[in-house]
């Protein structure tokens, strides 16, 4: 594999592209995951390897050098196969990969031609990495001494940004980030007031000296190498030419619901890894005849197969441009993925015993990463949203708020 990485191999064959990424994930990314986690370090080398196999512009229009792995080009399933393979190797890296691709899908769908040409060429020629940040929670924790949020001042030539965001995934390694900020004040996309008339998407150059990162903010039990720091903006100027789409487009064009099932795909990848690890333990300890092991591993297998079928169904709906159907299915898949992945990992732990929760066991890392990652959306609210839709009530497709 190392020899292959010396030369950037460009191919438009989706099957070859996916096979190259799956090979990288299995042979290289999975081997690096332990150190990235231990050091809470951004997986920069992984992104460089993806650049060398021409995988960094996966969801982008092929006319701009991308692979067209997006609903608009009838192939979101290819992107999700990539994500599943990466999550199987390293769930933290999968989160960084998701954020990069979510940003590219926003640009591909909503940016103008000049912006696409400028930014996509930087990705395909230079390996630039992107992120998309919204996090501005407005409720305080008991120990929290400061407020979180941004304020935006509009000027003729652009926007001036002050304040901060948290959960800024990939901030130590990304070149640019799409900032979801509101002209109405703090809150990001999730807690914005009147977002249809105030929410902006600003493409921010992260090398700007007015921007600083606070790594002390990020010390979680899992997903450590996502480096989701607190980021501070001190009179950061973003020119108008770097504003993506129209005000409110992120909400009115319902972009978040496209990303929701992507989280479920990552949870499935983590369960794949736990299952594979557990099979090795069973075989090495010659426990195949234990009836309880047989039952537990059967349930894990059924969970994987169930989620695989759901993933295929949602992808098929998106690729057919059946967005109303896909929106409903995506929320259902996201909820089930959390439940079945967590149940499956718990069964794997039950089979393998306490030693599997001791480093450097891969299952120990998977358990920690999955525990924090599934908190990204509130499962109770997702389930309530599914129920509200079944009852014919109005729902919030983006963030599953109880008052839509």
Automatic annotation (TrEMBL):
InterPro entries from the UniProt entry: Acyl-CoA_Oxase/DH_mid-dom_sf (IPR046373), AcylCo_DH-like_C (IPR036250), AcylCo_DH/oxidase_C (IPR009075), AcylCoA_DH/ox_N (IPR013786), AcylCoA_DH/ox_N_sf (IPR037069), AcylCoA_DH/oxidase_NM_dom_sf (IPR009100)
GO MF terms, alphabetically ordered: acyl-CoA dehydrogenase activity; flavin adenine dinucleotide binding
All copies of domain Acyl-CoA dehydrogenase/oxidase C-terminal, residue ranges: 267-373
Cofactor annotation: FAD
A Pfam family per the record: Acyl-CoA_dh_1
Keyword annotations: FAD, Flavoprotein
Annotated ranges, domain Acyl-CoA dehydrogenase/oxidase N-terminal: 23-124
Keyword Cytoplasm: no
Protein name stated in the entry: Acyl-CoA dehydrogenase family protein
């Amino acid at each position: 594999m190392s020899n292959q990485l010396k030369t950037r191999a460009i191919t438009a064959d989706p099957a070859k592209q996916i096979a190259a990424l799956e090979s990288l994930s299995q042979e290289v990314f999975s081997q690096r995951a332990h150190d990235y986690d231990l050091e809470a370090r951004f997986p920069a080398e992984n992104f460089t390897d993806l650049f060398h196999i021409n995988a960094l512009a996966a969801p982008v229009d092929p006319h701009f050098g991308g692979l067209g792995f997006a609903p608009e080009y009838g192939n979101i399933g290819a992107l999700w196969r990539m994500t599943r393979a990466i999550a199987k190797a390293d769930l933290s890296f999968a989160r960084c990969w998701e954020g990069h691709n979510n940003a590219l899908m926003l640009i591909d769908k909503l940016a103008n031609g000049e912006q696409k040409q400028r930014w996509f060429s930087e990705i395909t020629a230079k390996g630039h990495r992107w992120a998309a940040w919204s996090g501005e929670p407005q409720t305080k924790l008991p120990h929290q001494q400061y407020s979180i949020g941004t304020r935006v001042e509009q000027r003729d030539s652009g926007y001036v940004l002050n304040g901060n965001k948290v959960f800024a995934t990939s901030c130590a390694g990304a070149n640019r980030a799409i900032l979801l900020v509101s002209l109405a004040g703090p809150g990001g996309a999730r807690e914005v007031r009147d977002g249809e008339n105030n929410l902006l998407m600003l493409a921010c150059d992260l090398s700007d000296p007015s921007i600083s990162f606070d790594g002390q903010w990020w010390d979680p039990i899992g997903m450590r190498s996502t480096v989701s720091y607190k980021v501070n903006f001190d009179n950061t100027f973003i020119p108008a030419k770097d504003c993506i789409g129209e005000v409110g487009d992120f909400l009115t064009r319902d972009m978040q619901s496209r990303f929701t099932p992507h989280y479920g795909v990552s949870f499935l990848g983590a369960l794949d890894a736990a299952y594979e690890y557990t099979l090795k333990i069973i075989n090495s300890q010659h426990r195949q005849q234990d009836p309880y092991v047989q039952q537990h591993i059967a349930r894990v297998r059924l969970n994987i197969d169930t989620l695989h079928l759901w993933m295929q169904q949602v992808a098929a709906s998106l690729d057919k441009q059946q967005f109303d159907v896909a929106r409903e299915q995506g929320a259902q898949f996201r909820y089930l993925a959390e439940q079945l992945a967590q149940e499956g990992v718990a069964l794997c732990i039950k089979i393998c015993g306490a030693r599997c929760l001791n480093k450097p066991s891969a299952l120990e890392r998977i358990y920690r990463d999955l525990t924090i990652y599934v908190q990204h959306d509130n499962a109770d609210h997702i389930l309530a949203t599914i129920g509200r839709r079944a009852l014919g009530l109005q729902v919030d497709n983006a963030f599953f708020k109880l008052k839509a």
